[in-house]
Amino acid sequence: xxxxxxxxxxxxxxxxxxxxxxxxxxxxxxxxxxxxxxxxxxxxxxxxxxxxxxxxxxxxxxxxxxxxxxxxxxxxxxxxxxxxxxxxxxxxxxxxxxxxxxxxxxxxxxxxxxxxxxxxxxxxxxxxxxxxx
Length: 133
Prior knowledge:
The chain is an alpha+beta fold. 25% of the residues lie in helices and 27% in strands. A hairpin with a 4-residue loop joins strand 6 and strand 7 (114-118).
């Protein structure tokens, strides 16, 4: 009986701990973060980063001039989604516990099909996200 209870407990813990991740689809409006060194970033239109969402959708990230023209817009959207507020044109404020961005990371929003990358020097670029069906 003890062995049976141990097996049940281990199974329960395994399921609980592995299901803590967020289930992501192409319609997910959350910003997913991935560590990415700046040397991998290219701005010639070629795919420089690919990944897979929880639903099996495969995405790719690449430079797109039209998205780049809207870079500030998407940058502001990311910060607002993280809980920050733009006080004036340059000053951001946040409530305690608001999500911070990490330098050297790319943030991907599947729903908006856009990615924001923060270089270690605090500069950023915005890229297009596309999905393979």
